[in-house]
Amino acid sequence: MRRNIVVIGSLIVVAVFVSFGILAPETMGQISEYILYTFISDNFGWYYMLVAFLFVIICLYVAFSKYGRIRLGKDDDRPEFSTFSWIAMLYSSGLAISLFFWGVAEPVLMYLEPPFGEGGTVESAKVAMQYTFFHWGLHSWGTYAIIGLMMAYFQYRKGTPPLINHTLKPLLGERAFGPLGKVINIIAIFAVISGITTSLGLGVKQMGAGFEYVWNIDNTPINQIILILLLTILFIISASTGIERGIKWLSNINIVLALAIMVLIFVLGPTRHILEIIVNTTGNYVKNFVGMSFHLEPFLNDYTWQAGWDFFYWGWAISFGVFVGIFIARISKGRTIKEFIFGAVLIPSIATMIWYSTLGGSALYNVINLQNTELANRILANMDTALFYFLELFPISPILIGMTIISLIIFFVTSADSTVYVLGMYSEETIAPSNRSKILWGVVIAGVAIALLLSGGLVPLQTVSAVAGLPFSLVIIAMSISFFKSLRAEKDIVRSSPLKTEEKKQELSNEISKSS
Description:
By secondary structure, the protein is an all-alpha fold. It contains 22 helices and no strands. The radius of gyration is 23 Å and the shape is globular.
């Protein structure tokens, strides 16, 4: 009955927002945009910037502190998946379609309209790449990882169910399992569904645009629905085979495919220019990291740009991070805290910076150095098709476009099957949910995506998800306090353990015997 309350409650919340998005998408968009672009930006922009930075600092601190050697599980547990498969799965769930959707578009958009200074200049191009690193680097992955770390710690170290409210017990005691805990779990499920639905809906639009651009298949609502239904069958089958088979295999294949696309663009494109962008932008990113993290305009009092970029990204990362974090936690048993942070924050951040330098840097090279203003115009007009126009600029473009469409499909499937797995875990309170639960949530996600796609309510719901990051950030802060309370208690137990004391005495005795 306790499980049913959370599941039914979350479905009701989702149904309310979906109905709102279907019946009044414009009103929903206006309300959500007002909250994000006026209320939050005017009153809580400082908080979004501060909390996103805080999550990065917590991740780095705990990795390099005395707690870094603690294993996410029993002391003798070892990782369930190879490092390559682990990173492939967390990368596929964490970024997925966004790699392609924003890889070309974001640097060009910020080149034309930078956060400060004049747009369309060489200086604005440098700023654009620097802020692209900022948005897709440590802050995003730190937000995903902090949730995943705490979930994995409590699941595998303390033996709790994979529910967020259980991580709050050291802080709230039994109140974590009362009405407050249920509300937190309901919001968590809503965040997962709204985040993945908008991501997948926008991904289908881009895939449909690709089919129309390349093969003249009309990108109509009917064809988009057919595409969603076909992909739903694929991701339910993948999820039903379990993490060890479907999700792992597809993630491995797709990371190799995405790497191949990046390498081809790197080799066939302005190679020297890309290398210079990687080196120069990395230096600017490191040098200005703290300044960007706290960048506000208290005297100008105009946060229009930041509301659309910085504030939106941090709110979105928190909401989307609920799903990503829970999934990363599921696949991270047996790793140490330090190993987790390196694999879930530092390595993906570096890989993402190289990706955006290759695609975004090549796009900027075409616009600035080759004077290809058509690329910029296409990005402004329709980002869905701009990617495919960009790929046409390279030799063997048909191969690149074909590989990209295949990669988009696999990213769609891996993101969706990871989501239904997470929702199944949450609704059944187990790390091995039944296929019946996965199918149920798969149908829910597909239905929500279709309904909002037809009504035009995808983008408003995406804004709602970013807004939801504000209250949920408080949950993550509470989780962090609870996490450190548990870590300190664990260290105190180790220090006071008679067995450990005897072991230390024996070690000291052995050292004395050896020296004598």
